[in-house]
Structures are given as structure tokens and as C-alpha cells.
Automatic annotation (TrEMBL):
Domain N-acetyltransferase: 1-116
Species per Swiss-Prot/TrEMBL record: Cohnella soli
Cross-referenced InterPro entries: Acyl_CoA_acyltransferase, GNAT_dom
Name of the molecule in the record: GNAT family N-acetyltransferase
Organism lineage: Bacteria, Bacillati, Bacillota, Bacilli, Bacillales
Matches recorded under PROSITE patterns: GNAT
CDD domains: NAT_SF
């Protein structure tokens, strides 16, 4: 519920030709001088996967929100890891880091947008 009421949270519905195809939740972390963004949730319905929809939406969000990004996936979600590595790699020309944090069980890609 907080994504529709709190500052620093941005919900999006994904539509393809007017039909609901998924949703995205983006979270701001930090201050105006040093803003960081994270993808809290990113879901594209199976019917619309592998058609470029997810990459298009991700690129739109990276272009909209300038700053440092963290995109995390759980260890067991191998399709998400493949998608994000490929998508972030294309967007950044492979200029990203992949790290792990003690409080998260899976890879996290870190990169900065707005510096191209």
C-alpha cells in the first residue's frame, strides 16, 4: 500500500496495446544530493515475456530516474538474474558491478544512470 501514498515510492503498471501486462515498484533511497534507486518489484506476465517489453520498461525507468541503482534478485530466481544482467549490460555497455550483501541472498547489480 505504501507505494501509492509515500513519497519516494513509484508504482507503475505496464500496458501493451492498452492491456495490463505487469507492474513495477521503484523505491528512492537517499537524499536529493545523492539519490539511489532500487527495483522493489518487477513483473511482466508470461504472455509478454521475451518480446522486449521488460527491457523497454527498464530502460524507460533508468532514463527517468537518474542516479545510482541497485537491482537485486534472489538466488533461486535464475530467469530474473539472466534478464537483469542482460538488460543492465545493454543499458550500461557492461559498465556495472555485481555484488552481494549480508542481508540479501542473491546477486545485486549496481550502476549509475545519467552519465552516458
Amino acid at each position: 500500500m505504501n507505494y501509492w501514498t509515500e513519497d519516494g515510492r513509484h508504482p507503475y503498471f505496464i500496458r501493451v496495446e492498452g492491456v495490463l501486462a505487469g507492474f513495477v515498484l521503484i523505491r528512492e533511497i537517499g537524499t536529493a544530493e545523492s539519490m539511489n534507486y532500487s527495483v522493489a518489484e518487477f513483473f511482466v506476465m508470461k504472455k509478454y515475456r521475451n518480446q522486449g517489453v521488460g527491457q523497454y520498461v527498464a530502460f524507460y525507468l533508468f532514463n527517468t530516474f537518474k542516479g545510482k541503482w541497485e537491482v537485486a534478485q534472489i538466488d533461486s530466481n535464475l530467469p530474473a538474474q539472466k534478464f537483469w544482467r542482460k538488460t543492465i549490460g545493454r543499458y550500461t555497455n557492461n559498465n556495472f558491478q555485481e555484488i552481494r550483501k549480508d542481508e540479501w541472498e542473491g546477486p545485486i547489480q549496481i550502476f549509475t544512470t545519467g552519465i552516458r
